[in-house]
Design brief:
This is Carboxypeptidase regulatory-like domain-containing protein. The protein is mainly β. The chain has 2 helices and 25 strands. A hairpin with a 5-residue loop joins β13 and β14.
Length: 337
């Protein structure tokens, strides 16, 4: 810009009004040039001066840092991961309205909307998701003398864990879309384990065979309401064959020190084992007293060195395949004298 004296010299006879106007304009220009630029929307700032930082921690106290969590802004390309202490830092962000997202493996994602007009600190407390350790669906067949119809039922079981602790698991649900069936499993004494038996009539079906090839889903829910749904689990088969017990039967008396169990069975073509269960009958009350499992396939007898007291008993033989499906024989009664 040319100096004032140079401008005045160019005007051979400057008028007083012109000089006054010129001086006033120069004064205002100098004042405006010194206006503080603290308006974040001022384009002269470049709109890339802001900082967003904070921490990502677990949901419940005492809150622990979550390392390697992903934090990013939309719209835009700003993205970072948290350090070992859960801290994150994003610089050179333009002023504006953003959605800040946060996610970490094993945790429910979270997001918050911010209107960024200054540096901002933002903390996330992520809810740990429930996770299935195992889930099983098995079929079971029980032959009986009376009523004449055999019993079939479905047994469902699941083991669930949670990043926030087993106490955070609210419930586990079993769902079968084929029959519009949905119910909750019962928690077991062992924390994180859930199990429930459903009979044919419970499942909105007329035969358990209808469920072969149909997916069974498990849904775990924690206290904050996060849910995890598994892929479909399928029943492998329904066992129809049962062993025919031949000895001891019909209140036959056996020695107190040994019992020779015998049965007939055409062995199934698939891998399986056999199991003998012995029950005591005392004043009409039935109590399980002995289980002999992992009897090899093809066996038709088993000698048991008994330590049972005198009394009335009954026994059964169960076929168990590699998936846990079973078929139990009709019972037979014997006496120990």
């Amino acid at each position: 810009m040319k100096p004032l004296w140079h401008i005045l010299r160019a005007c051979r006879q400057p008028r007083p009004g012109f000089v006054l106007a010129l001086l006033t304009g120069l004064f205002l220009w100098a004042c405006l040039d010194d206006v503080p630029r603290d308006n974040p929307l001022d384009p002269a700032l470049g709109n890339h001066n802001f900082l967003l930082n904070g921490t990502v921690q677990t949901y419940y106290a005492p809150r622990s840092p979550i390392a390697d969590a992903l934090v990013w802004l939309e719209p835009g390309t700003h993205i970072t991961r948290t350090a070992a202490d859960g801290a994150f830092r994003i610089e050179n962000i333009a002023a504006g309205l953003y959605t800040v997202y946060c996610s970490a493996e094993g945790y429910a994602s979270d997001s918050v909307q911010v209107n960024l007009t200054a540096n901002k600190q933002l903390n996330f407390n992520l809810n740990g998701l429930p996770r299935f350790v195992s889930r099983t669906v098995t079929t079971h067949h029980v032959a009986r003398w009376f009523p004449l119809d055999d019993v079939y039922y479905l047994e469902t079981a699941a083991q669930v864990t949670d990043a926030d602790g087993l106490a955070d698991i609210k419930q586990v649900i079993c769902e079968i879309p084929y029959s519009a069936f949905r119910d909750t499993l019962d928690p077991e004494l062992n924390a994180g384990h859930f199990k429930k038996t459903f009979f044919t009539q419970d499942l909105n079906i007329s035969s358990l065979h209808e469920l072969l090839g149909q997916p069974v889903y498990f849904i775990a829910e924690d206290n904050p309401g996060a849910q995890l749904r598994t892929e479909g689990v399928y029943a492998a088969r329904i066992l129809e064959k049962t062993a025919a017990l031949t000895s001891p039967v019909e209140l036959q008396a056996v020695p107190a020190d040994s019992i020779h169990f015998r049965w007939e069975l055409n062995p199934p073509a698939f891998d399986h084992t056999l199991q003998i269960d012995v029950y005591a009958i005392n004043a009409g009350i039935v109590t399980s007293v002995k289980t002999i499992d992992d009897i090899p396939a093809g066996s038709t007898d088993w000698l048991y060195r008994s330590d049972l007291p005198a009394g009335d008993y009954f026994w059964t033989v169960t076929i168990r395949d590699a998936f846990g499906n079973t078929s139990q024989s009709k019972e037979q009664v014997f006496q120990i004298q």
